[in-house]
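Reading group handout, session on sequence-to-structure problems. Before we discuss, look at one worked example. The prompt was deliberately terse, the way you'd type it at a terminal:

> structure N5-carboxyaminoimidazole ribonucleotide mutase

The input record follows.
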Amino acid sequence: MAKVAVIMGSDSDFDVVKKCIDMLKKFDVEIDVRVISAHRNPRELAIFAQTAEEKGYEVIIAAAGKAAHLPGVIAGSTPLPVIGIPIKTSLEGGMDSLFSIVQMPTGIPVATVAVNGAANAAILAVQILSVKYPELREAIKAYKQELDEEVKTKNARVQALLNEE
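And the output record:
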């Protein structure tokens, strides 16, 4: 079974990260959720990142705001793919978080989703995992078909409203 670690820098990130957790559960991915701070307990973070592969994680999702070093620090200590979720802050709507995560040096990539884009982080993780797990590939295809049907339903609703005028 596919296994993903979801790490947040603070419990204040949980409301955003919950969307990621829910999406991973939708795809029946095994999840380990933790609060580990890059700044307040860096030794624990280093141990986590350095042992993540041997613990069976295949993708790590890390959410952080403000001085959002968490995803980058993890990426610097593991060969696993890391997906960063920038958390919205009071500074420019989370642009500080976004820039902290997306501006990584060569050799230490972090895939970065939109500010508060937790659901997309989960979907990207599932897409990465689908290379190894064919059942996840099929589940992603079905999910994308659901999205297509939702848009068609919305379009039909709008067209009906226009025809009433």
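Points for discussion. First: The mean pLDDT is 96. Second: The CA atoms of residues 84 and 112 lie 5 Å apart.
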